[in-house]
Design brief:
six-stranded mixed beta sheet, 249 residues, 12 strands, Metallo-beta-lactamase, Chain A, alpha/beta
């Protein structure tokens, strides 16, 4: 495998991740629209030409993760990967506004569905690659994979590289110390996702909002939400199969 770097950048009020790997570099999420110049600067900063970006992975299809997608595809020629449960959302340019997990976000969600039902939606785009559960990144010289991490949305996915997880909105890291997302369509499923991530031995998380965080800093909220939702999640209860890396000869 080639050596590569994980670069963490804020674009608007959402983060993007660039995996710098020469002519097989990968971009994860595309930030809030109107910020194409941020990516042009980022590529130049690491001596990449736009066509070095071979793949764009969307953790899900909300507008703050797809805002510069169309422009970036034109610029780079990269293929786009989305989870199968988000494929039609992206193609149609419509994603339901997610449910709130807190009183004020429940209000925002309810109001948005009435006043601006397309608020969370991306511009229409048909993805090239559809991930059904997990997908290896070996073709890009990266010893990692994309895995399903539902809960925030049914089609959320994350990128696992070693003991690092690029999580999209499966985790956040706000200044008030909150790490459980303020919006999640299925909080109980998201807790199961968190437990599976713990089982994988992940140590650090690159969230879509806020700074990088250590997994240990999420345990307290995990227990709080387990009690709040009265769900019983045992350490191995949701690990249906191991996400282990295959060895290529």
């Amino acid at each position: 495998m080639n050596e590569y770097k994980i670069i963490f950048r804020r674009v608007g009020y959402s983060n993007t991740i660039l995996i710098v790997n020469g002519s097989h570099s990968v971009l994860i999420d595309t930030g809030v629209k109107g910020n194409l110049f941020c990516f042009e600067y980022l590529f130049d900063q690491f001596d990449l030409s736009p066509d070095d970006i071979k793949l764009i992975i969307l953790t899900h299809t909300h507008y703050d993760h797809t805002g510069n997608l169309n422009e970036l595809v034109k610029l780079t020629g990269a293929k786009v990967m989305v989870h199968k449960n988000e494929y039609e959302n992206l193609k149609k340019g419509y994603t339901p506004i997610p449910k709130g997990t807190l009183p004020f976000t429940k209000f925002i969600s309810a109001a948005g569905k009435i006043v601006y039902p397309k608020f969370a939606s991306p511009r229409p785009f048909e993805a090239d690659i559809v991930n059904e559960d997990e997908m290896l990144l070996y073709d890009f010289g990266i010893e990692g994979k994309v895995i399903s991490t539902p809960g925030h949305t049914n089609g959320s996915q994350s990128v696992l590289i070693g003991d690092s997880l690029i999580s999209g909105d499966s985790f956040v890291n706000f200044r008030n110390g909150k790490v459980f997302p303020p919006f999640a369509n299925d909080p109980a499923t998201l807790l199961e996702t968190w437990q599976r991530i713990y089982n994988l031995g992940v140590k650090e998380i690159f969230p879509a909002h806020g700074d990088k965080l250590k997994v240990k800093d999420t345990y307290e909220e995990f227990e709080k939400w387990k009690n709040k939702l009265a769900v019983n999640i045992k350490p191995q209860s949701v690990l249906k199969k191991e996400y282990s890396f295959e060895t290529r000869s």
